Amino acid sequence: MTSTAAGSQASDATTPGGTPATAASMRAIVQDSYGDAGVLRHERIARPQITGNEVLVRVHAAGLDRGTWHLMAGKPYLMRIVGLGFRGPKARVPGRDLAGTVEAVGPAVTRFAVGDEVYGVGRGAFAEYAVAVEDKLAHKPKSLSFEQAAVVPISAGTALQALTDHGRIEAGQRVLVIGASGGVGSYAVQLAKAFGAEVTGVASTAKLDLVRSLGADQVLDYTRDDYADGTHHYDLVLDIAGNPKLARLLRALTPKGTAVLVGGEDGGDLTGGMNRSLRALMLSPFVGQRLAWFVAQVRAGDLERLNEFVDSGQVTPSIDRTYPLDRVPEAMRHLASGQVRGKAVITI
């Protein structure tokens, strides 16, 4: 095909809705209101612009996480009040986790150049191009595909911070991971093993084989096994499932153990799991064990540290399914069903 023919073909291209495509446009998933996966549409929109310390990434793959579902649904409602957008999302294009190639850099960017393969967190990852702040990106591990790298940043970063910054994990400790088959949990099991802990993973019957494959020393089926029955006690408990009563977490701990609350899906539409998390913080000073809760932050330093675990083979992303960009609504429904084993990824 000649360049003239190629240009003619590009100018004749249209969006999924029939709007003519332009060289400065891109395919993206957009939403103008909160709701279930039905609010997501596949359209062609203008490419985002960058400035300062921002990086324009040509997205090859994007990851799904529970936080992205909350941003789509606008729940808990407290998120809207603190800046998400009261009646509808301020950011039309959803998606945070991404992996791709640097397309352009802002004038203040020093760590990346055009053509670099990167991964991290950006704005509007469910699109052909997304914007990321420099300090939320790292160079993609060479041992991972773009699809694998795209499901690392938020979930693995959260697991790392839960274990180290808040759990203060030490080699030889007994660690219990509740919700071990999900995005954060699948990384928590592997990272805890890498830190030299003895790991017990809690999951549903259908996902126990996955948790074993991640390296867990023991697995418990939450439909029939009670981790708080007094048979065993743990130095560190990561509650990623987000629904056990605080009393059960305390019963599972050693007298000086620590429980870190990572998730919180129960608690209603207004505040979600924050009520339980705040109760844990208030209770912690009055009991022998320590209860901790945190909001994970995406940091380039954590991504670079994760690169070491990935390149050494101690951590491997577990991908359940892949979906093309126009099937993001289907991927969101699968995520909301609770059936995802590990992570789901969007390929672009």
Automatic annotation (TrEMBL):
Location of the region described as Disordered in the Swiss-Prot/TrEMBL record: 1-21
PROSITE patterns: QOR_ZETA_CRYSTAL
One Pfam short name: ADH_zinc_N_2
Taxonomy, superkingdom: Bacteria
SUPFAM superfamilies in the cross-refs: GroES-like, NAD(P)-binding Rossmann-fold domains
Ranges of Polar residues composition bias in the record: 1-12
Family matches, as CDD domains: MDR1
Gene3D superfamilies registered for this protein in UniProt: Medium-chain alcohol dehydrogenases, catalytic domain, NAD(P)-binding Rossmann-like Domain
Domain Enoyl reductase (ER) span(s) in chain numbering: 35-346
PANTHER family according to UniProt: ALCOHOL DEHYDROGENASE RELATED, ZINC-BINDING OXIDOREDUCTASE
Name of the molecule in the record: NADPH:quinone reductase-like Zn-dependent oxidoreductase
